[in-house]
Amino acid sequence: QKEVEQDPGPLSVPEGAIVSLNCTYSNSAFQYFMWYRQYSRKGPELLMYTYSSGNKEDGRFTAQVDKSSKYISLFIRDSQPSDSATYLCAMGPGGNAGNMLTFGGGTRLMVKP
Amino acid sequence: DTEVTQTPKHLVMGMTNKKSLKCEQHMGHRAMYWYKQKAKKPPELMFVYSYEKLSINESVPSRFSPECPNSSLLNLHLHALQPEDSALYLCASSPLSRAGEVNEQFFGPGTRLTVL
Predict the structure, then answer these.
(1) Fewest CB within 10 angstroms: A100, B15, B16, B18, which?
(2) Rounded percentage of chain B residues whose pLDDT exceeds 90
(3) In which band, very low, low, confident or very high, does the pLDDT at B51 lie, cut at 50, 70 and 90?
(4) What angle do CA B28, A94, B59 make, to 5 degrees?
(5) Chain A from 51 to 110: CB within 8 A of any B CB
């Protein structure tokens, strides 16, 4: 079993839809959670960063963390064709492991006009 | 300046060539990383530098040799690569974490490497 599981998709939605992207993890040491967006043949771009259970909102994006269930989500409201990309969750344990991140496999999202 | 830059964007090399990838950031970050990413896969960590010293080497073959000349620059020297080393090579940087923290990593656009 992988430490971080993420449905690879592709997930296809119409423009304006609310998108829900999810990751589950097995390592209870993970304390810090990030979401990256990666366009084809480009580097990952940091979207959201959080370290506590609950919700964090930034514009059209909301990151949700449930440490008790080991489950994180990224919601995208009013999705746009420009949101079409691969979304990667990443997480780290903190402590002496510092900046070691474990990535999910990525979910490919397609938003159709 | 809030970005990580990488050169070259694309590189094609033969198995006997020696080449270098370069990465630069001016955000004052003291941790820098090299990742390898194959198509439709997540990035795989190769090396981590903290305060210009190599702190993590994820059992990477010696044909990959990292170098951190100063706090803003990170190089990856390539020699005698194999075709299976063809991938997108990503550089990232982050503020150095205090104990118990993980800081967000900022990625460059990557160098697409093809080994013939």
Answers:
(1) B16
(2) 69
(3) confident
(4) 80
(5) 51, 88, 90, 92-96, 98-101, 103-106
Tell me the per-residue pLDDT of A26-59, one tens digit each, with 9 for 90 and over.
999 888 899 999 999 899 999 999 888 899 999 9
Helix (H, G, I), strand (E, B) or coil at A81: helix
d(CA B90, CA B103): 17
Fill in the amino acid letter for A75: F
- Rounded to a whole number of angstroms, the distance from the CA of A18 to the nearest CA of chain B is 24
Quick check: B111 and B11 in contact, CB under 8 A? yes
Cβ–Cβ below 8 Å for A42 and B110: yes
C-alpha span between A7 and A71 (Å, rounded): 13
Cβ atoms of B57 and B47 within 8 Å: the answer is yes
What type of residue is A33?
A: F
Instruction: Kindly identify which residue of chain A lies nearest to residue B99, measuring between CA atoms.
Output: A95
Structure tokens at B108: 């460059």
CA pair distance B33, A35, nearest whole angstrom: 18
Cα distance between residue B57 and residue B45, in whole Å = 9
List, in order, residues 6 or more apart from B35 with CB less than 8 Å away.
Answer: B43, B44, B45, B46, B89, B90, B91, B92, B107
CA A17 to chain B, closest CA, distance in angstroms equals 25
- The helix, strand and coil proportions of chain B, stated in percent and rounded to the nearest 5, come to 5, 55, 40
Structure tokens at A30: 């993970």
